[in-house]
């Protein structure tokens, strides 16, 4: 007897998913568009936005609306969206009906992974956002413009990470997203560092508050450049990316 999930008729497919998910109206199945082999739970995950994605999106919109994002950076984000779908279609398609169940490259519950993510979020987003907000209060337009590109791109990366880790994309796509954005952000961080060290306030007759802000900006810019450079060149490229490809192609051989 044929597997009912192999039937292609929309009415029969809706009936199968309705049986698996009695609390979901059949009319919503067309909107959610579940794929063969998926349950409604994984379909819901693919069609909803997480709390962190929502916050990242808010940061992106605020910075873009403030005129602090260059057309080049904005274009890079749009290009990355198109490119990951292109790669997913033609280079690294999902190898299962529910890629969200694929084994992760690293244990997301591990203490090192959690610590690294938390530290990166504080250093890369929370502190620079506070620095930008303080700059608005102090009228430091130069410092704001220097820090904003990094914050915008990191918020975009956080948003795209959520998209990549849905059940639509394979493991290589999930790894390539942070690699893309980290590589791009290195240049913006170098610009931020150059901008901060070009200021002549320190020892140049500025008041104490302005001098402290310059020192804070320099420390924050350098710390981010060092951290994200080590993350890209010391972890993602030599360790994370090769392991992701190994898992992907090993799974392909097994199948």
Automatic annotation (TrEMBL):
<keyword id="KW-1133">Transmembrane helix</keyword>
<dbReference type="InterPro" id="IPR056635">
    <property type="entry name" value="DUF7733"/>
</dbReference>
<feature type="domain" description="DUF7733">
    <location>
        <begin position="50"/>
        <end position="249"/>
    </location>
</feature>
<feature type="transmembrane region" description="Helical">
    <location>
        <begin position="49"/>
        <end position="68"/>
    </location>
</feature>
<feature type="transmembrane region" description="Helical">
    <location>
        <begin position="221"/>
        <end position="241"/>
    </location>
</feature>
<keyword id="KW-0812">Transmembrane</keyword>
<protein>
    <recommendedName>
        <fullName>DUF7733 domain-containing protein</fullName>
    </recommendedName>
</protein>
<dbReference type="Pfam" id="PF24867">
    <property type="entry name" value="DUF7733"/>
</dbReference>
<feature type="transmembrane region" description="Helical">
    <location>
        <begin position="113"/>
        <end position="133"/>
    </location>
</feature>
<keyword id="KW-0472">Membrane</keyword>
